[in-house]
Amino acid sequence: MTKLLALSGSLRAVSMNKTVLEACIKLAPAEVDITLYNGLAGLPPFNPDLDGDNPPKKIVTLRKQIGAADGLVISCPEYAHGIPGSFKNMLDWLVSCVEFPEKPVLLINTSPQSERIIPLLMEVLMTMSARVVSNASLTLPLKGRKLDADGIARNAEFGGQLRDSLASFVDAINAV
Ligand SMILES: Cc1cc2nc3c(=O)[nH]c(=O)nc-3n(C[C@H](O)[C@H](O)[C@H](O)COP(=O)(O)O)c2cc1C
Asked: Where is each NADPH-dependent FMN reductase-like domain found (predicted)?
């Protein structure tokens, strides 16, 4: 069983980035288990003074979930040509932990006009020693389509691309 942790960079209740990750859960092959991380809104602001021997409980939980995953699937919006603050806050908590380096990452972008977000995330994630699987990453024109997770999964084009992307990602994880 390959275990993936899905991380949305949006806190919106009806978020396209969260929805595409829910579609991934529906499309995952039987031998792939995808869990959606739901703790982003509750993470404390990153403070190196708190990142010692006893980090906050929610950070311990986050790091455990990262450590237990064979790979991460990230779908994140672009805010003001940057990474949303709450998502960057989570990444900052992962900079110095032992669980994150070499973690395989699949990047999904739900809006082609947000052309900066993938390079921005790549820069930060590579600096954090993640293994971004670039050939599996994909951009889907979902913005404005008002599709729910079922609608994305059932759409021949979007569902097909997500399925292929997940398959390439899992192959890359298991090839090492
Ligand atoms: C504060 C804010 C800033 C944004 N800045 C950008 C931007 O710089 N470039 C862009 O392409 N979209 C920008 N957007 C649009 C979002 O990236 C877009 O609506 C995205 O699909 C929202 O994702 P969600 O549905 O998962 O919340 C911005 C949206 C907000 C709320």
From this structure: 2-140
